[in-house]
Design brief:
Strands 5-6-7-3-8-9 form a six-stranded mixed beta sheet, sandwiched between helices. A three-stranded antiparallel beta sheet has the order 2-1-4, with no helix packed on it. About 35% of the residues are buried. It folds into two domains: about 160 residues, Rossmann fold (3-Layer(aba) Sandwich), CATH 3.40.50.300; about 60 residues, no CATH class. It has about 240 residues and is α/β, with parallel strands linked by helices. It contains eight helices and nine strands.
Amino acid sequence: MTASVPSITVRGSAGHDGTMLFDGLEMHIGAGQWTCLLGPSGVGKSTLLRLLAGLDTHVDFNGTLETSDGIPLAGRVSYMAQSDLLLPWATICDNVGLGSRLRGEKPNLEKLTKVIADVGLGDHAEKRPGQLSGGQRQRAALARTLMEDTPVVLLDEPFSSLDARTSFDMQELVARHLGRRTILLVTHDPGEAVRLCHRIYILKQGRVDQVESLAPPFPRDFADPEVFARQSALMARIREDTG
């Protein structure tokens, strides 16, 4: 990846039909780092990701999206939604290489084969999504995101459909493959946030609060006592905020 890897600062408010989703929001997404956004359902986490991705949000946003290099985000973002969004008529191989084809490029077959194998779908590359389990479909969607060579990556609960062991393996895989890209992760899992992220924000009651995170390197060892302590503190904070 040769493109500039920017930091992103989001400021502003968003609402629809007189209902405010968030107001006075200010969030910094560090260059080459993982930033996590936690919070209950319906507070605007996915809306914020779609806003950064340049997708339709069905809300009115009044604010700014600033990049450290001054270059717009358009064309520099990969986005993985909560649903896998796989094309049902295409093979897993064709789904994973879809981005290249949409740009009129020939997919890198060596990279394509490796990424599919890395997510554990090497024996399923010629199958169609309907032949896979929900967890396998989620891994295929992850592989498609890993194929994209963009400096900014937006992940909306990418491990939510996976069992605990596979989720942990995929976290390690994604952290390794994405390298020093600028990443915003939406999750409901405090442990995931603590292990992976340089910055952690909680979106609630229309505002975003930054909470204490651990020091690099990431991903942190799941058996590290600091990880357990910070995860417990973060869970207590979330329960306090939502209770």
